[in-house]
Amino acid sequence: MDSKQADLAGVARLIGEPARAAMLDALLSGRALAAGELGRVGGVSPATASEHLARLRDGGLVEVVAAGRHRYYRLAGPEVAHALEALALVSPRRPVRSLRQSRVAAALAIARTCYDHLAGQLGVALHDALVDRDALAAGGDGYRLTEAGAQLMAGLGVDVAAAAAARRAFARPCLDFTERRPHLAGALGAALCARLLADGWLVRVAADQRGLRITPRGRRALATYFGVRLPDPRASTAGAPDG
Amino acid sequence: MDSKQADLAGVARLIGEPARAAMLDALLSGRALAAGELGRVGGVSPATASEHLARLRDGGLVEVVAAGRHRYYRLAGPEVAHALEALALVSPRRPVRSLRQSRVAAALAIARTCYDHLAGQLGVALHDALVDRDALAAGGDGYRLTEAGAQLMAGLGVDVAAAAAARRAFARPCLDFTERRPHLAGALGAALCARLLADGWLVRVAADQRGLRITPRGRRALATYFGVRLPDPRASTAGAPDG
DNA sequence: CGGATCCTTCGGCGCCGGCCGAAGCATGGC
DNA sequence: GCCATGCTTCGGCCGGCGCCGAAGGATCCG
């Protein structure tokens, strides 16, 4: 335990600027984006974008990786994504302006990435299915995989050993900011998401970096492996969030 | 699912101001504090404090309850506390300045409240003990109480039925920002914390609203009921956080 | 009812920081 | 080598907001 104290205001100040918040939101897709593209996302000039990104970098919120004459930025880690989601959870909603925005929001509600794992109705449904089937059990820093869970993951081709060896937490619930119920995060959640994308069960929607579309094949597979059928017609009013 | 989008920047901007951040930090004790006291905490005049509190109120981060000529402010809910803790988790640490600050920080690291439940080494140890003893199991929006867990809580005099009936989540892990491992949050966590305070196992430390001291009686009881012995001499380097 | 306490609103000051254009520095293509 | 592209740094403008003192309203006390 180092005897220091956190600088709450500093980090919040970094996020609390519309252009930077838009950039961070875009980076919640888990992908690394070029500085210029992030500037466009934030609606500012390249010069301003560069300043913002430098600040975010100094604040430890993003990392940069140089590639040719492009510089790609990504979130500095899962805990940054977690903080952003937690903030979104308490943010007042403001009305959408266009039909297009409404369509995008509806699509995001069904399936999207939360940093590098699955969120939205799909993410929550998968989480619940894994818990209900006793594939996940309480233990360690969140969840541990049961014998049944290990077999299920092996059947899907998820590299559980690699996930267990990662320096980050293995499996952890992450409160979904649209569903207000947990979905699966951590190394296992990321590995599962990657696998489902690689297998063509899910594809990224070009319109929004975070959006996912479930392919027909994925729909069948989700029903077979997890008993999950989406979109779920049940009412969206679920349990209240909690800290 | 309402088709709206969250205003990430707005909320972060509210938190990202030193005086307001200090106020919110003080409110993380879970108590309601008067406007004047919060002004002193933030190091600003009553006038400025009032402005800040009005903004926080409009932003939905705090609630106010009038009592005589005092107006007491408290966090608007558990999800606000959760967002603050998540932010603290990614905040860079800055060196403490005085010996006094160092002592306070060390005390906070051992036992403190996180909004209305237990955090610090004590909170994490209790969480781990409950999971290890199969008092808590994965289920619902986080944890459910097993039969053994229900008996344990009953023995302590914790009103589990009331906690289960609360509108908030029943039991949920909350990532501790000093330990970087989960402690127990949710209605059950709050009920447990309240019970331990009421029974005199823990007392609040006047120097810092969030700080807790374990009484000699509490120390014995914690060992008896949970097998928990603090301060724990094991190294503080634990698993990395995750979103 | 008059004074004390607590809080809020108002007016005005000052500064931080977000913005851009222009210039500087890399990299890549030809 | 020369130019185009992508990004960053620099200088300067300007608006927002954080700050306070003073004034006003509410509550409690004697």
In words, what does this structure look like?
Two copies of one chain form a homodimer. Chain A contains eleven helices and 13 strands. In chain A, a hairpin with a 2-residue loop joins strand 3 and strand 4. In chain A, the strands form five sheets. In chain A, strands 2-4-3 form a three-stranded antiparallel sheet. The first copy, chain A, has a two-stranded antiparallel ribbon with strand order 6-7. Chain A is of the alpha+beta class. Chain A has two domains: 11-76, Orthogonal Bundle (Arc Repressor Mutant, subunit A), CATH 1.10.10.10; 98-226, no CATH class. The radius of gyration of chain A is 18 Å and the shape is globular. Chain A has helices spanning 8-15, 18-27, 35-42, 46-58, 78-90, 99-110, 120-132, 147-156, 160-165, 186-198, 216-226, and strands spanning 4-6, 33-34, 62-67, 70-75, 93-95, 112-114, 117-119, 136-139, 142-145, 172-175, 182-185, 202-204, 212-214. Chain A binds a DNA duplex (30 and 30 nucleotides) through residues 17, 19, 34-36, 44-54, 68-71.
